Amino acid sequence: MLIFAVERIDYQLKYCIKMVNYKELGLVNTREMFKKAIEGGYAIPAFNFNNMEQLQAIIKASSELKSPVILQVSKGARNYANPTLLRYMAQGAVEYAKELGCAHPEIVLHLDHGDSYELCKNCIDLGFSSVMIDGSSLPYDENVALTRKVVEYAHQYDVTVEGELGVLAGVEDEVQAEESHYTKPEEVIDFTSKTGVDSLAISIGTSHGAYKFKPEQCTRDPKTGKLVPPPLAFDVLDAIMKQLPGFPIVLHGSSSVPQEYVDIINANGGKLPDAVGIPEEQLRLASKSAVCKINIDSDSRLAFTAAVRKVFAEKPGEFDPRKYCGPARDLMEVLYKHKITDVLGSDGKLAQC
Ligand code: G3H
Ligand code: 13P
Ligand code: ZN
Predict the structure, then answer these.
(1) What are the pLDDT digits (tens) for 116-130?
(2) Which of 91, 114, 124, 312 has the greatest number of C-beta atoms within 10 Å?
(3) Mean per-residue pLDDT of the chain
(4) Which residues line ligand 2 (CB under 6 A)?
(5) Looking at ligand 2, which atom is closest to the CA of residue 112?
C-alpha cells in the first residue's frame, strides 16, 4: 500500500503540470477585445481546434487578415489532443502569428462548454485566458452558483468568463437538449449581476452541429430543393440588449453548413442528407450588434472532411497524410478567411499590427 502511495506521489511530481498564467504565454483575455468589437460593430471569431492543421489554418487566416481570434478547446478536444499539448500549441500559435508578420497578435485560449468548476480551474491553471462555464442545463439557481464560483476563481488571475442562459438544441458537448429554450430576457440582469460573468451566451435559435433544424422546421427553396431554415429570434436578442446595454453577447452553434462542402462530401462517398446551418446574412447582422463572439466549429469539420474525401476519391493510392491533411488545411484557411472578412467583419481590427 505504502509503495503504491509513494509511487503515486512520485508520478504526480514527475508529471505535475506547472501552473502558468496566460500572460506568460503571450495570450490575452477577452475583455478589451469584446469592448472594441461592440463599439466597432463586428464580432470576434471563436474557432474550435483539435489538431495542428486546424490551428495552422486559423492562425494563418487571422494573422494575414490582422484579426483578433479566439482559439476554442472543448472538453472533447482536451481528451483528444492532451491538455498540456494544447497549451503549448497555443503558445506556439502566438509565435507563429509573429512569424507571419503580426508583431502584436491578440489570441485568446478559451475553454468551450466547461461543465464543472474543476475543469475550468484546471484550464485556468494551465494557461487558458478565458473559460466558459456552461450551467445552462442546470436549474437557474444552480447555474448562478456554479458560474459565480468559476468567476471568483478566474478573476483572481484576470481570466474572463462566459456563462450561458437558455438552452441550444442539439448536442452541447456534454450538455444535451432535445429542443432549444430561448434565453429569457427577464433573467439576464439578475444572472449577470449575481455571477459577475464577462460575457453571456444566449439561445436565439442557433444550435450545434451540421443538422441545426429538422426538415419539418424548414421550407424548401423551389429552385434548388435545398432546405431554408427559419430565421433567428432577433426580437429576443433585441430584448436582451435592451436589458443589458453594451454587454458582450455570444452566439454558439453558428456554423452555416456550406452546401458546397456538403455536396463534395456527398459526391465522394459521404452521407450528409439535409444538413443545414445558419444563413451567413443573419450572422452578419448579429455581428453588428452586441454579439461580439461567434462560435464556429462544424463548418471547419465539413471543410476538412470535404478535402480529405476528395483526395481519397481521386487518388485511392495516396497514403501520405500530408497529401490529404494539406489540402484540408488549405480549404479550412479559405473558410476562416471568408468568415473573418465576409461574415464577422473582424479583419484589420488588431490594435497594433
Ligand atoms: O459546441 C461544441 C463544439 O462544437 C465542440 O464539439 O465536443 O465534439 O469537440 P466537441
Ligand atoms: P457549430 O456546431 O455550429 O459550429 O457551433 C460550434 C460551437 O458553438 C462551439 O461551442
Ligand atoms: Zn457551443
Answers:
(1) 999 999 999 999 999
(2) 114
(3) 92
(4) 48, 112-113, 208-209, 252-255, 295-299
(5) 10
